[in-house]
Amino acid sequence: MASLVATFALRRDDGFEVDVELACPPGVTCVMGPSGSGKSTILAVLAGLQRPARGRVALGDDVWLDLARGVDRPVHTRRLAFVFQGLALFPHMTALANVEYGMREVPRPERATRAAALLARVGVAHLAGRRPRTFSGGEAQRVALARALARSPQLVLLDEPFSALDRELRAQLTALVRELAAELAVPIVHVTHSVAEARQLADQVIRIEAGKVSARGTAAEVLAGVTSLDE
User: Fold this and answer.
1) Are residues 145 and 167 in the same domain?
2) Domains in the chain, number
3) With bands split at pLDDT 50, 70 and 90, how would you rate the model's confidence at 35?
4) Is 37:209 a contact under the CB 8 Å cutoff?
Protein backbone atom coordinates (compact mmCIF):
# COMPACT_ATOMS: atom_id res chain seq x y z
CA MET A 1 0.00 0.00 0.00
CA ALA A 2 0.97 3.63 -0.54
CA SER A 3 2.86 5.80 1.93
CA LEU A 4 1.99 9.39 2.73
CA VAL A 5 4.73 11.90 1.99
CA ALA A 6 4.19 15.58 2.80
CA THR A 7 6.31 18.71 2.94
CA PHE A 8 4.69 22.05 3.63
CA ALA A 9 4.96 25.37 5.41
CA LEU A 10 2.40 27.96 6.45
CA ARG A 11 1.90 30.88 8.77
CA ARG A 12 -1.35 30.80 10.74
CA ASP A 13 -3.49 33.90 11.30
CA ASP A 14 -2.01 34.19 14.79
CA GLY A 15 1.51 34.38 13.29
CA PHE A 16 2.54 30.88 14.33
CA GLU A 17 4.60 29.06 11.68
CA VAL A 18 4.42 25.37 10.83
CA ASP A 19 7.18 23.92 8.62
CA VAL A 20 7.36 20.12 8.46
CA GLU A 21 8.38 17.10 6.42
CA LEU A 22 6.46 13.87 7.01
CA ALA A 23 6.80 10.33 5.73
CA CYS A 24 4.09 8.00 7.02
CA PRO A 25 4.03 4.41 5.74
CA PRO A 26 1.04 2.10 6.22
CA GLY A 27 0.51 1.59 9.93
CA VAL A 28 0.11 4.07 12.77
CA THR A 29 2.10 7.28 13.02
CA CYS A 30 1.50 9.12 16.30
CA VAL A 31 2.07 12.88 16.08
CA MET A 32 2.84 14.23 19.53
CA GLY A 33 3.87 17.47 21.12
CA PRO A 34 2.86 20.16 23.61
CA SER A 35 -0.43 22.01 23.21
CA GLY A 36 -0.17 24.65 20.49
CA SER A 37 2.78 23.02 18.75
CA GLY A 38 0.95 22.66 15.41
CA LYS A 39 -0.33 19.07 15.48
CA SER A 40 -3.93 19.78 14.47
CA THR A 41 -2.75 22.24 11.82
CA ILE A 42 -0.76 19.41 10.23
CA LEU A 43 -3.88 17.24 10.01
CA ALA A 44 -5.86 20.13 8.54
CA VAL A 45 -3.32 20.57 5.73
CA LEU A 46 -3.25 16.82 5.00
CA ALA A 47 -7.05 16.79 4.78
CA GLY A 48 -7.21 19.85 2.55
CA LEU A 49 -8.99 21.94 5.19
CA GLN A 50 -6.13 24.45 5.34
CA ARG A 51 -3.92 25.62 2.47
CA PRO A 52 -0.21 26.09 3.17
CA ALA A 53 1.93 28.84 1.66
CA ARG A 54 4.01 26.19 -0.08
CA GLY A 55 4.05 22.44 -0.10
CA ARG A 56 3.31 19.03 -1.52
CA VAL A 57 1.18 16.16 -0.21
CA ALA A 58 1.09 12.81 -1.98
CA LEU A 59 -0.19 9.35 -1.21
CA GLY A 60 2.03 7.13 -3.29
CA ASP A 61 1.71 8.37 -6.88
CA ASP A 62 -1.57 10.18 -6.12
CA VAL A 63 -0.70 13.86 -5.66
CA TRP A 64 -3.22 15.75 -3.55
CA LEU A 65 -1.31 19.01 -3.24
CA ASP A 66 1.57 20.47 -5.22
CA LEU A 67 1.40 24.24 -5.09
CA ALA A 68 4.43 24.63 -7.36
CA ARG A 69 2.40 22.88 -10.10
CA GLY A 70 -0.96 24.41 -9.20
CA VAL A 71 -2.42 21.17 -7.80
CA ASP A 72 -4.78 21.41 -4.80
CA ARG A 73 -7.35 18.62 -4.63
CA PRO A 74 -10.51 19.54 -2.69
CA VAL A 75 -11.37 17.66 0.49
CA HIS A 76 -14.14 15.53 -1.00
CA THR A 77 -11.80 14.09 -3.66
CA ARG A 78 -9.15 12.97 -1.15
CA ARG A 79 -9.89 9.40 -0.10
CA LEU A 80 -9.42 9.98 3.59
CA ALA A 81 -11.29 9.60 6.85
CA PHE A 82 -11.04 12.19 9.61
CA VAL A 83 -12.19 11.54 13.18
CA PHE A 84 -12.22 14.64 15.36
CA GLN A 85 -12.33 14.87 19.14
CA GLY A 86 -15.87 16.25 18.77
CA LEU A 87 -16.83 13.30 16.49
CA ALA A 88 -19.48 15.32 14.55
CA LEU A 89 -22.01 12.50 14.41
CA PHE A 90 -25.34 13.66 12.97
CA PRO A 91 -27.68 13.83 15.99
CA HIS A 92 -30.89 13.29 13.95
CA MET A 93 -29.57 10.10 12.31
CA THR A 94 -29.33 6.59 13.72
CA ALA A 95 -25.95 4.93 14.04
CA LEU A 96 -26.69 2.95 10.88
CA ALA A 97 -27.61 6.10 8.92
CA ASN A 98 -24.49 7.90 10.19
CA VAL A 99 -22.31 5.12 8.81
CA GLU A 100 -24.27 4.91 5.54
CA TYR A 101 -23.66 8.63 5.01
CA GLY A 102 -20.03 7.89 4.21
CA MET A 103 -20.93 5.40 1.47
CA ARG A 104 -21.85 7.68 -1.42
CA GLU A 105 -19.84 5.55 -3.84
CA VAL A 106 -21.57 2.33 -2.73
CA PRO A 107 -24.80 1.31 -4.53
CA ARG A 108 -27.73 2.32 -2.32
CA PRO A 109 -29.15 -1.22 -1.90
CA GLU A 110 -25.82 -2.38 -0.44
CA ARG A 111 -25.28 0.42 2.06
CA ALA A 112 -27.34 -0.83 5.00
CA THR A 113 -25.72 -4.26 4.92
CA ARG A 114 -22.22 -2.82 4.76
CA ALA A 115 -22.96 -0.25 7.46
CA ALA A 116 -24.30 -2.95 9.78
CA ALA A 117 -21.16 -5.02 9.17
CA LEU A 118 -18.94 -2.06 10.08
CA LEU A 119 -20.88 -1.38 13.28
CA ALA A 120 -20.48 -5.04 14.18
CA ARG A 121 -16.75 -4.87 13.42
CA VAL A 122 -16.22 -2.09 15.94
CA GLY A 123 -18.43 -3.78 18.53
CA VAL A 124 -21.62 -1.69 18.46
CA ALA A 125 -24.04 -3.61 16.23
CA HIS A 126 -26.70 -3.12 18.92
CA LEU A 127 -26.69 0.65 18.30
CA ALA A 128 -27.82 0.43 14.67
CA GLY A 129 -31.30 1.87 15.28
CA ARG A 130 -30.37 4.34 18.02
CA ARG A 131 -29.40 8.02 17.81
CA PRO A 132 -26.21 9.61 19.20
CA ARG A 133 -27.86 11.19 22.25
CA THR A 134 -28.30 7.68 23.67
CA PHE A 135 -24.66 6.63 23.17
CA SER A 136 -22.02 6.48 25.86
CA GLY A 137 -18.70 8.18 25.12
CA GLY A 138 -17.06 4.92 24.10
CA GLU A 139 -20.01 3.91 21.93
CA ALA A 140 -19.97 7.25 20.14
CA GLN A 141 -16.26 6.83 19.38
CA ARG A 142 -16.88 3.38 17.91
CA VAL A 143 -19.68 4.66 15.70
CA ALA A 144 -17.44 7.51 14.53
CA LEU A 145 -14.72 5.00 13.63
CA ALA A 146 -17.23 2.89 11.70
CA ARG A 147 -18.38 5.95 9.76
CA ALA A 148 -14.76 6.85 9.01
CA LEU A 149 -14.10 3.38 7.60
CA ALA A 150 -17.23 3.52 5.44
CA ARG A 151 -15.36 5.43 2.71
CA SER A 152 -12.72 2.71 2.36
CA PRO A 153 -10.13 5.43 3.04
CA GLN A 154 -6.56 5.44 1.79
CA LEU A 155 -5.56 7.65 4.72
CA VAL A 156 -7.04 7.90 8.23
CA LEU A 157 -6.58 11.02 10.36
CA LEU A 158 -7.38 10.89 14.09
CA ASP A 159 -7.28 14.15 16.06
CA GLU A 160 -7.20 13.15 19.75
CA PRO A 161 -10.51 11.24 19.45
CA PHE A 162 -10.07 9.41 22.77
CA SER A 163 -8.89 12.27 24.98
CA ALA A 164 -12.22 12.73 26.81
CA LEU A 165 -12.55 9.05 27.74
CA ASP A 166 -11.45 7.29 30.89
CA ARG A 167 -8.31 5.14 30.94
CA GLU A 168 -10.11 1.80 30.43
CA LEU A 169 -12.12 3.00 27.43
CA ARG A 170 -9.03 4.61 25.91
CA ALA A 171 -7.16 1.32 26.23
CA GLN A 172 -10.02 -0.57 24.56
CA LEU A 173 -10.26 1.85 21.64
CA THR A 174 -6.50 2.03 21.23
CA ALA A 175 -6.46 -1.76 20.90
CA LEU A 176 -9.27 -1.52 18.33
CA VAL A 177 -7.35 1.02 16.23
CA ARG A 178 -4.29 -1.26 16.38
CA GLU A 179 -6.41 -4.12 14.99
CA LEU A 180 -7.93 -1.90 12.30
CA ALA A 181 -4.49 -0.67 11.25
CA ALA A 182 -3.42 -4.24 10.50
CA GLU A 183 -6.61 -4.86 8.51
CA LEU A 184 -6.64 -1.59 6.54
CA ALA A 185 -2.93 -1.45 5.67
CA VAL A 186 -3.12 2.32 5.07
CA PRO A 187 -1.34 5.21 6.80
CA ILE A 188 -3.07 6.26 10.02
CA VAL A 189 -1.93 9.61 11.43
CA HIS A 190 -3.00 9.85 15.05
CA VAL A 191 -2.56 13.02 17.12
CA THR A 192 -2.35 12.24 20.82
CA HIS A 193 -1.08 13.70 24.08
CA SER A 194 -0.89 10.30 25.73
CA VAL A 195 2.57 8.80 26.00
CA ALA A 196 1.08 5.47 27.10
CA GLU A 197 -1.28 5.46 24.12
CA ALA A 198 1.56 6.12 21.71
CA ARG A 199 3.67 3.34 23.20
CA GLN A 200 0.79 0.89 22.72
CA LEU A 201 -0.27 2.06 19.28
CA ALA A 202 2.51 3.62 17.23
CA ASP A 203 4.67 2.10 14.54
CA GLN A 204 6.27 5.55 14.26
CA VAL A 205 6.27 8.59 16.53
CA ILE A 206 6.81 12.11 15.21
CA ARG A 207 7.37 14.75 17.87
CA ILE A 208 6.41 18.33 17.02
CA GLU A 209 7.74 21.35 18.86
CA ALA A 210 7.09 24.97 17.88
CA GLY A 211 5.77 23.93 14.48
CA LYS A 212 8.75 21.77 13.49
CA VAL A 213 9.67 18.10 13.70
CA SER A 214 12.03 17.67 16.64
CA ALA A 215 12.25 13.86 16.63
CA ARG A 216 11.02 10.83 14.71
CA GLY A 217 11.42 7.10 15.13
CA THR A 218 9.88 4.23 17.01
CA ALA A 219 8.07 4.87 20.27
CA ALA A 220 10.97 3.28 22.13
CA GLU A 221 13.40 5.70 20.46
CA VAL A 222 11.42 8.94 20.68
CA LEU A 223 9.74 8.37 24.05
CA ALA A 224 12.59 6.75 25.96
CA GLY A 225 12.33 8.00 29.53
CA VAL A 226 9.44 10.35 28.69
CA THR A 227 6.41 10.39 30.98
CA SER A 228 4.92 13.71 29.87
CA LEU A 229 4.99 15.73 26.67
CA ASP A 230 6.11 18.74 28.69
CA GLU A 231 9.48 17.07 29.33
Assistant:
1) no
2) 2
3) confident
4) yes
